[in-house]
Amino acid sequence: MAKAATPSIFVSLAAANLAAMEAQASRVSGSPVGYELRLDYLREFSNLESHLHQFLLGLHYPQTIATCRRTEAGGQFEGEVNQQVALLQAAVRAGCQWVDLDVESVDRAGTNVLRQFQPAKIIVSYHNYRKTPPLGPIYRRLARLPVQAVKIATYGRLLRDNLKIFRLLKAHRGRSPKLVAMAMGPAGIPSRLLALRWGCPFTYASPGNHSSAAAGQLPSDIMRAVYRIEHLDRWTQLYGVVGSHASLSLSPAMQNAAFQAKHVKALYMPCETSRLADFMAFARQMGFRGFSVTMPFKRGVMRYLDWIDPLARRIGAVNTVAVQNGKRRGWNTDAAAVVEVLTKRLRLRGSRILILGAGGAARAAAYALRSEGAEVVIAAIPQDEEVARRLARGVSARAIPWAAAEGLEVDTVINATPVGMPPQVEAMPIDLARLRTRVVFDMVYYPLETRFLAEARGRGLTTISGLEMLVAQGARQFEIWTGLAAPRALMEQAVQQALGHSSAT
């Protein structure tokens, strides 16, 4: 059995057969990784030792963890403990250097079961797929067992559950047995990204293509190329994006590319939560230097700030926060981005602009454009008409029913609604055949070219994509945080690559 140093990332392979696992492994690129083989996903176990030996030979004998988690422990294997043990023993004979045995099986079979996997190293694991309970007692119980490593994986309901993982790792850093700990789920992503910095000997990743074996697992190439997790240390500055769907944000790809290009030692990560107070406490404990704010917290975050840019205060929404000299300062870069992308195409003062929608993006656009001297007309769907009227009164604009928008003659139409995003990719917010305009601006950036933009281009109109808007507001955020000129072309390229990765997976 070839010996090798323990890698910092183990990629979890989970499929119905070894050929499919091999296909998953073939998608992993970059520096060497280890593999966690989720044998409980296999549907056929005949000649496992021989087939697994050939599988490992094809992968040039990487470091591997054999796992066969029983259903009692949240896995797929429906057999008894003695059958589980036999499969793991076959994996060791085939060449696996590690065995991960769930604590439920140890409880059923007794601690002597741990002596049946020599010469492999043993990980005893605890999983809680519902919550993150107090972790100290769990670790102390597992650490008494004759094993080389303890793994604790719990579900992160809130960002503060990451802090429980952090404190556990900090308290037992450098001790034996080794401790691997993480919070699962979207809210637990920070614990995966910061695992090595916090003292984990290694962490887990997916091979990509929607084949993650656990909630919140990120593809190994993303963890390395975008987040550079192996290069994080105590001097790395922390930034992030907070929102109820922050795990889907493209901003981490964009901002981390900018930090790397400008040699800023920083990490920007998704912080998904349903409670703004949860994030604010997490950011304070972690010492965040700044963060982006997305739905639904752009208004609520204002009460936590020490200073707010006057335009952001008039808009009533903040999407950018910087922590400077211990004070939280807020801006709205959406507004500046709208002005930036439009002034490249037309003179705003005196121009007539139709905004479709009355949400946060529409609000930022309306205030920004009115401050530049443009005439603004706001059209909202019937259930949002009162919101549109209040917005119009606030900026001295005009609100009209949605049905009345198609007969207008304007210089620009802005789609500030989700129409055109999945699953409405064939939908159009308005019929361009009945609207007279010169410029069509769609704030939707996925897909890159919406049907709305495609039809506008087909009519010979000037078009502006949501990608340009996303990069413009993100570039201004980067400049606020760092004082450096943003590498805009690189940021746009990073977003395009991230979008390509999303569509491929």
Structure in words:
The chain has 505 residues and is α/β, with parallel strands linked by helices. It folds into three domains: 9-226, Aldolase class I (TIM Barrel), CATH 3.20.20; 237-331, Rossmann fold; 335-469, NAD(P)-binding Rossmann-like Domain (Rossmann fold, 3-Layer(aba) Sandwich), CATH 3.40.50. It is built from 18 helices and 20 strands. Strands 7-6-5-4-3-2-1-8 form an eight-stranded parallel beta sheet. A six-stranded mixed beta sheet has the order 10-9-11-13-14-12. Helix 2 crosses helix 3 and helix 13 (333-343) crosses helix 14. It is elongated, with a radius of gyration of 26 Å.
**How many structural domains are formed by the residues?**
3
Q: Helix share of residues?
A: 25-40%
- End-to-end span in angstroms? 34 Å
| Residue share in β-strands | 15-25%
Task: Say what oligomer this is.
Answer: single chain
**Uncertain regions spanning at least 5 consecutive residues:** none
